[in-house]
Amino acid sequence: MWQLSLSILCSALIGNLLILFKRDPRRDILLIFLGNYFLATIFSLATNEHSLSRIGSAELILGGLGGIFFLVNFLIYQKNITQNGLSLSAGMMRVSLIIPTFVSLVLFSEKIGSAAYLGIVTVLAAFIFLTNARSYQNFFWLVILFVITGVTDTILKLYDETGSQQPGLFMIILFAAAFSGNLILVFQKRRSFNLRYFIYGMILGIPNQMTTRFFLGALESVPAAVVYPLFAAGVVALCFLTDIFLWKKKYRIRERWGILMLIIGIILLNI
Q: What is the model's pTM?
């Protein structure tokens, strides 16, 4: 269970680092993300066990598309943290599991249990509590985050079902595509290179990589039926606590009930 706990901690740390970096008024988020994806690409190359010549069309197409969505998703995530707070943003990313679940039902004839249907209903009920508490502009960004995260996870699901089962090669293409797209944005917006912000991004990349590493380690010792719901709910709960005690964010009673229902819905969706 210690690896699961570290995975939850690293995942929550990503969002908190984004908040910390945004406190620098001159920070360049594109250079920060560039450092993050640079480290992710190097790490993927270093840990890959297959020859690059084995990269197929599935890796190139789905990995390239997934990389672009990874970048867009990260940009929207940091925007949501500013607009809606860390816990609600993290919760929305976990709730987006509904989209790949629906795709699996339609395309791959997979079945889900009654707990998942109850989770969907609970999540929808949570939105009733949260919608009235926030402006339409803020809610718009939550919807965009929900859709983009869901599409990103769907791409990963499609590779899992149709790819050649070479995740190491897939991750190389995915992060290289995200890095390339990020680099194009840096040149397009004529941003000057700043080593300080690039290093910020590499620091961000450490918990980003460790989250996956510890999560996979947890799956080796703890049943998946326990790992998935505990990880998803644990990340949202920890982000909620850091929002309140570290960043002094004020939540109304209605919002707190909404986030609690969101956590319950996430647990049910992951069972």
A: 0.86
Q: If phi over 0 gives left and psi between -120 and 50 gives alpha, with beta otherwise, what is residue 113?
A: beta
pLDDT per residue over 134-156, tens digit each?
A: 556 678 888 999 999 999 989 98
Per-residue pLDDT tens digits for 64-97? 999 999 999 999 999 999 888 898 899 989 888 8
